[in-house]
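[Discussion] Sanity-checking designs against the backbone

I'm trying to build intuition for which residues belong where. Below is a structure token string of 287 positions. I'd appreciate it if someone posts a full sequence so I can compare it with mine line by line.
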């Protein structure tokens, strides 16, 4: 990793949950190539969602980690702000792109650091309000908030399996997806290592309790910079949420998917979604 950005305009991508950058490889590579490799496309995995390199230790316990709740939702927001402070010169113009809970993280970052030079922020399938009340939220809230410890034993047992067997099992699970992007298989294998999946579930439980009301104040202050893209059949952010925000911000750039993309678009539509984003932001980059 470079010590800092040295470019005038850069993309910074914020993942959903699980927050493993490898899931978005095709999306990011397409974005990078379509701008002629002129603008770097950076992303940071959520803390604790992937195995660190052998040269690094991942803090899992202790008073320091507990006090700062580094793997919780607030800790993940501060993790991304710390990355910007350490690696990105303040004068860099940013195109922020978020997926799912990454959109909530973007809004929080803009609110906490209003001096960020954000040129545009693209919100893909945004989970920015009433998560526990969504169809998927109603199913997952009890699991993530009250029953996740039950999943820890089978997750631990899965982590002990040989890598090839894990890979075969994952391909079997994804077998029903006709145009599966095979680049997502290895990141999924990595998620089944150590405490990664448990950390993702812990963060998910916090999302259900924390993501309640939409942050209309931050949205209103930055409306001209924001693009929202809602799914037409998304169980994490239903069409009603699209209609609600459209009514509250009639002049905002708020779109509804017409391409039948799933919420987890990286599974089979990373390239197509990236091409769409390129068209939306091309004018902001002057290319």
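Best answer:
Here's mine. Compare freely.
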């Amino acid at each position: 990793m470079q010590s800092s950005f040295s470019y005038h305009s850069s993309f910074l991508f914020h993942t959903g949950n699980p927050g493993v950058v490898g899931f978005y490889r095709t999306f990011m590579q397409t974005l990078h190539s379509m701008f002629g490799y002129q603008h770097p496309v950076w992303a940071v995995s959520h803390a604790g969602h992937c195995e660190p390199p052998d040269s690094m230790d991942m803090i899992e316990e202790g008073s320091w980690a507990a006090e700062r709740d580094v793997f919780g939702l607030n800790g993940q927001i501060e993790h991304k702000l710390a990355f910007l402070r350490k690696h990105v010169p303040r004068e860099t113009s940013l195109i922020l792109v978020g997926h799912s809970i990454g959109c909530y993280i973007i809004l929080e970052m803009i609110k906490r650091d209003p001096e960020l030079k954000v040129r545009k922020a693209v919100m893909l399938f945004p989970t920015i309000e009433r998560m526990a009340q969504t169809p998927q939220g109603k199913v997952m809230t009890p699991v993530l908030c009250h029953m996740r410890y039950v999943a820890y034993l089978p997750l631990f047992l899965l982590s002990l399996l040989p890598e090839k067997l894990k890979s075969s099992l994952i391909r079997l699970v994804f077998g029903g997806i006709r145009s599966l992007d095979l680049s997502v298989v290895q990141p999924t294998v990595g998620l089944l290592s150590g405490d990664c999946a448990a950390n993702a579930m812990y963060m998910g439980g916090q999302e259900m309790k924390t993501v309640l009301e939409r942050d209309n104040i931050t949205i209103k202050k930055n409306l001209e910079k924001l693009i929202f893209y809602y799914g037409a059949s998304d169980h994490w952010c239903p069409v009603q949420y699209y209609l609600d925000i459209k009514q509250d911000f009639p002049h905002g750039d708020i779109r509804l998917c017409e391409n039948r993309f799933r919420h987890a678009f990286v599974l089979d539509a990373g390239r197509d979604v990236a091409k769409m984003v390129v068209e939306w932001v091309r004018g902001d980059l002057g290319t």
